[in-house]
Amino acid sequence: MTDTRVGIVGAGPAGLLLSYLLHLQGIDAVVLEARSRSYVEQRVRAGVCEQPTVDLLREIGVGARMDAEGMPHHGLSLRFDGADHRINLTELAGRCITVYGQQEIVKDLIAAHEEKDLPIEFEVSDVALHDLDGETPRITYTDAAGNAQELRCGAIAGCDGFHGISRSSIPDGELTVYERHYPFAWLGILARTPPSHEELIYTHHERGFALHSMRSPEITRLYLQVDPNDPLEDWPDDRVWSELQQRLATRDGFSLREGPVLEKSITPMRSFVVEPMQYGRLFLAGDAAHIVPPTGAKGMNLAVADVRHLAHALKLLLRDGDPAPAAAYSETCLSRVWRAEHFSWFMTSMLHTDPDSDDFGRRLQLAQLRYTATSRAAATSLAENYAGLPFEGR
Ligand code: APR
Ligand code: PHB
Predict the structure, then answer these.
(1) Structure confidence at residue 271 (pLDDT)
(2) Per-residue pLDDT averaged across 272-297, rounded?
(3) For residues 60 and 85, what is the distance between their CA atoms, to the nearest angstrom?
């Protein structure tokens, strides 16, 4: 039996950032991760950091590589009717985004843990949570060497993503689930070719949505709306490129650069929130508590906002004996969560081709796109949500 103040399940952005923030506030934590270090460092995920995320990473001293290698973008394009309509984020919202792969942030946070000798246990199994409604909840697990272990904690953070065990450790009837499924998925590729445009392009096309993004001056990231039941085998590289070329085409001859495909996967899209995000001394953060469709680029940014509140609340609970911010954790997070849920749903609905919609629905989408492209008020609303609303409180 080992004691720690906070047991953290999951070494994604939520778990790693929480552990580091707690360390900076003098609270011990242990991170338990089912996968290997190289797996979590290589896993390809989203890549847009909103301004508040960038500011926080800098402020805590883990932003050096992001500042050197990340790509600040001051705008993005909405592409429809065969033409680009630029949204100037910096001018409209006074802040911008930084394109920097989520797994790069994961690498930077793991390196920061290593430097300070902070514990992360990779390749653990059989993680189970106990005594959540008492003052000393416990985590049992099997370590990488196959030994049974037990961690006695002052609080547990469930940062184990959508498919983790934390949320399902909460007794039946305690949580309310709010969710929405979409009749499409995203096929994403990473291609070894320079980006074809200096900024992100969100494309609405009758054949389906497409997104041009990037990871570096040499690597392009592209997404296509596909049917969620499509097997990956139905999408050989030449079909992916042909579809991207058709959807991204413009009336003034945009040319999409092609190159070797380094990675390809299909991700279903859903919106999902559980309320409350806590039970007793278990606090859920990031994808364990909520999922957004990726069109608003909010997933990782929401995880960051959650753990910023959680670190503060756990410091007050465990170090200063003040339980109020921990009791209010869920309520505090949920206002930002629901704002991001709305924005992500809005971007998704405006940009995708819904197979269950009709001509009326398609006219509504075009009306919204044209309004966003021509009204400063509508564009400002998109810009301030996309670049990230300021963190609440403190
Ligand atoms: N025991 C230990 N670790 C687990 C378990 C378990 N039973 N189940 C899952 N995990 C680990 C996963 O292997 C993963 O590394 O928890 C981690 C959860 O990380 P993420 O899925 O990255 O979730 P989160 O940290 O909340 O980050 C949210 O990541 O999933 C993307 O789109 C999402 O961008 C968003 C961000
Ligand atoms: C990405 O680059 O992976 C990316 C960018 C914008 C999104 C989603 C994903 O909305």
Answers:
(1) 98
(2) 98
(3) 36
